[in-house]
Write a structure and sequence with these properties.
Blueprint (H helix, E strand, L loop, with lengths): L1 E3 L1 H4 L5 E8 L4 E3 L2 E5 L3 E9 L3 E15 L6 E15 L6 H4 L3 E2 L4 E3 L1 H11 L48
Parallel strand pairs: 7-8
Antiparallel strand pairs: 1-9, 2-5, 3-4, 4-6, 5-6, 6-7
Length: 169
């Protein structure tokens, strides 16, 4: 995903819009692999402020994921804001280089920065809906699709000794 900043690089106050779309490959995120079900759509406003190039816009895509409660696959839509700062070599300081992108050429590849923003925006666990009931702890039935006849008062064996304790209030 490349952006050509020729028309804003040398003109202070100049601004240009970009509408980019690219297919990203699947990736491993710890124990699970995630894949994109839609291309990554990026809309950017790139503005030369004379000290740096300020970039703002949105990132939109959709991922194929597995619900952390019921283990069913579903599509997870993602729309997030994007802001970045690209600095000219003359203004580059060690502190700025920690967060900003060094603008050395007219063609800037932003794929890695976009991918980082997507990964940072992902939740710890994907849940297909707020009211997902998950799986039965005893038989493993998907409680969104069926009800099971398992007892609901199953006690975790680690806490079984507490079942015999009675308060003396």
């Amino acid at each position: 995903m490349k952006v050509n900043v020729t028309q804003v690089r040398y003109r202070s106050g100049e601004s240009v819009r970009f509408d980019l779309m690219e297919d990203f490959s699947s990736f491993d995120l710890g124990a699970e692999a995630l894949s994109f079900s839609a291309p990554v759509h990026v809309q950017l406003q790139v503005t030369n402020t004379n000290k740096a190039v300020m970039v703002s816009g949105t990132i939109e895509t959709e991922l194929n994921v597995i619900c952390g409660r019921c283990l069913e696959p579903f599509k997870y839509p993602l729309k997030l804001p994007y802001q970045d700062e690209w600095i000219f070599p003359a203004q580059a300081t060690e502190e700025l280089l920690e967060s900003a992108l060094l603008l050395e050429k007219d063609d800037v590849d932003i794929s890695q920065r976009i991918f980082e923003q997507i990964v940072l925006a992902l939740p710890m666990k994907f849940v297909c809906s707020d009211d997902c009931r998950g799986l039965c702890l005893t038989c493993g039935a998907n409680l969104n699709l069926t009800s099971c006849s398992c007892k609901e008062d199953v006690v975790d064996p680690r806490f079984a000794a507490l079942a015999n304790w009675h308060s003396q209030d």
